[in-house]
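ok, trying the design again with the full structure, not the truncated one.
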């Protein structure tokens, strides 16, 4: 039985990283990155987004406010136990790490991966669904390797959850929000990202006020680069970034 339970990996260096997955997926999506970071001493919490990891129907009651509230709560749990806390994530999870950094100047650093400020037209996330459509069917068929093992999602997804991501992007696109970010940042996005507009990483990099910021833009890897062949270089550079702080 496949589950999307939250996972906490105890580390040895007294520092913690909160990793958040993409919308419609679950905590398991971040496990390969979590295990890599944990091998280098970091405690890692793979958190589920609000409305995820339970039942599809919970997404009917999940908007942007709930995504933010859950991320804030999870961050507060780690902050209560660790003096040094980093945040990162894939896609929507990366956007939430940006939001946390803007609202919490004490955050030690962020690693947003494939984080959209806009979506590529024509994907299941950016589709203009008719008002009468309640669910989008997303089959698990055809997945292989790490995608089959870790990219676990509901096959019937309430389309209203996509509005939550649009509202979160609207917040980040507001003048002055990303500019509030001053903590160290390592921004990752593949040039062939098929979901998030590939220019998102550069725009984030340009707008944040961090003095310590870097960007990694591999040509390949796609949106879910944390599960792609290119993932190990992303993980290696992430550890290098964290160890440098």
């Amino acid at each position: 039985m496949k589950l999307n339970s939250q996972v906490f990996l105890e580390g040895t260096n007294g520092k913690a990283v909160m990793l958040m997955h993409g919308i419609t997926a679950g905590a398991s999506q971040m496990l390969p990155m979590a295990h890599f970071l944990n091998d280098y001493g970091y405690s890692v919490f793979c958190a589920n987004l609000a409305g995820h990891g339970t039942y599809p129907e919970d997404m009917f009651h999940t908007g942007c406010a709930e995504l933010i509230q859950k991320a804030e709560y999870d961050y507060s749990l780690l902050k209560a136990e660790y003096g040094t806390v980093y945040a990162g994530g894939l896609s929507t999870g990366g956007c939430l790490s940006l939001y946390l950094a803007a609202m919490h100047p004490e955050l030690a650093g962020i690693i947003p991966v494939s984080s959209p400020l806009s979506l590529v037209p024509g994907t299941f996330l950016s589709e203009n669904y008719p008002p009468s459509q309640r669910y989008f069917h997303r089959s698990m068929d055809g997945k292989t390797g790490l995608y089959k093992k870790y990219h676990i999602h509901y096959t019937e997804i309430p389309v209203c959850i996509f509005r939550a991501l649009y509202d979160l992007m609207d917040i980040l696109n507001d003048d002055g929000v990303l500019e509030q970010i001053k903590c160290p940042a390592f921004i990752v996005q593949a040039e062939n990202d098929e979901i998030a507009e590939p220019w998102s990483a550069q725009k984030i990099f340009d707008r944040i006020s961090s003095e310590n910021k870097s960007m990694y833009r591999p040509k390949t890897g796609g949106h879910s680069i944390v599960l792609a062949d290119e993932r190990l270089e992303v993980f290696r550079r992430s550890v290098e970034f964290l160890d440098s702080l």
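Keeping the full-length input from now on. The domain at 7-243 is CATH 3.40.50.1820 (Rossmann fold).
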